[in-house]
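SEQUENCE AND FOLD
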Amino acid sequence: MTKPKILALSQRDQYLLSMPTLDSQLPALFENGEGVEHVTAYCPGCGGHVHSARIRGVVVRPLRSLIVIEALAACPVCKAASRVDYRIHEACSVSNLTRNGWVGPF
């Protein structure tokens, strides 16, 4: 696996790291009882998984039918950081932010 470029953290990334863990903000549920109970991110550095307890950021509900997660995952193995940007729709479909913009919902 090719190592990703190491980039300086943006001000927004630093802000997200100062926020609580996603574990402390979840579950986030819709009125129908469905929603997000935990988040796992893929580490671009080592290919491992980073669990909610190591992901810091914000979980917001801009609409009753939408949960937005904006966070930064810090890998405990290789120390790489990666963005976690998800939109979870009430129909339990997920969109995620990539370099090319929002993809999904899936």
Q: What stands out?
A: Helices lie at 11-17. The mean pLDDT is 88. Residues 11-17 form the longest helix (7 residues).
